[in-house]
Amino acid sequence: EKITLSVIKADIGGWPGHSRVHPQLVETAEEVLSKAVEDGTIIDFYVATCGDDLQLIMTHRKGVDSSEIHGLTWKAFEEATKVAKELGLYGAGQDLLKDAFSGNIRGMGPGIAEMEITIRKSEPVVTFHMDKTEPGAFNLPIFRMFADPFNTAGLVIDPNMHMGFRFEVWDIKEHKRVILNTPEEVYDLLALIGAKSRYVIKRVFPKEGHKIAKDEPVAVVSTEKLYEIAGEYIGKDDPVAIVRAQSGLPALGEVLEPFAFPHLVSGWMRGSHNGPVMPVAMHQANPTRFDGPPRVVALGWQISPEGKLVGPVDLFDDPAFDGARQKAVEIAEYMRRHGPFEPHRLPMEDMEYTTLPGVLKRLEERFKKIE
Ligand code: 13P
Ligand code: 13P
Ligand code: MG
Ligand code: MG
Ligand code: MG
Ligand code: MG
Q: What is the architecture, at CATH level 2, of domain 1-118?
């Protein structure tokens, strides 16, 4: 019997500014989801936070893209938005881009990662939650988990994963997708996903012959781009991901290992700067320095045979990640010293804000041809 794991998130108001989620929003979402457990809509849930993003983690039997589940999350976000408005939180309802729910939450603002899976004898799962960055921030770590033998020893030494994996990559500008096989097509894959603002890993699948069926995802990332939905660039979509672990998949420690390197991602202040992504415990995921630096939280779960969420375990709450946090602080300091210069500030086409057209217009007369 299959269970669906859905992680759906939205920024519906920051406290203060864009720094964190007010506890009353968490309580409101918990009330809505508790009722949904009672009436049998979902099996289990947990409400997490990362920065100013409210994260609903749910198990159920309705499959992915279920209008019932999406409607439930929309309701939870709407109820919490009422509270955010009462409290005058910053950007209340920011990510709820449509007024009325019409069957599917995709394209309505929230970020969504869902997978329908056959629960294994033991099903260890990690949910990742990022703030102040975009879905492409997952490209490097997901690649390392499932395709880099210097990260994942199992690719070399575990006969159950030696054949490699399949990566589904989305071109989020052209709305196209392609599936690439590793290790055979690793250079083609990297040629795409190195351009992380355009080519985003959406899912990873096993190959034929793996213990897990070929069409069951082993990892999934949220990829909604808010600016495409709204018709204008209104924000980077702080992303979430789900990754299954162990037993023919990367071990838990191989899933977490990429985050020991605080790689550079786009987002941070005004969604317009490059900076390091800092792995932190949930209580430390309150970005404040220059509204950052970007954060990633990892929550560990065992999914019980009935679909209960046994957890969370706050996985970056480990002194072994102190070095990565310290490195992120050093990189943040180094990047900040560039002020308004690239590559700290993003190239023009990737910025959420820009005054450039206005500046150019004002200077139009004063620009002279170079002879
Ligand atoms: P155990 O032998 O403790 O189960 O660990 C196996 C493993 O996968 C470690 O990465
Ligand atoms: P969020 O995307 O987390 O709301 O942050 C927006 C921003 O402008 C931070 O400076
Ligand atoms: Mg915000
Ligand atoms: Mg955010
Ligand atoms: Mg977030
Ligand atoms: Mg954002």
A: 2-Layer Sandwich (3.30)
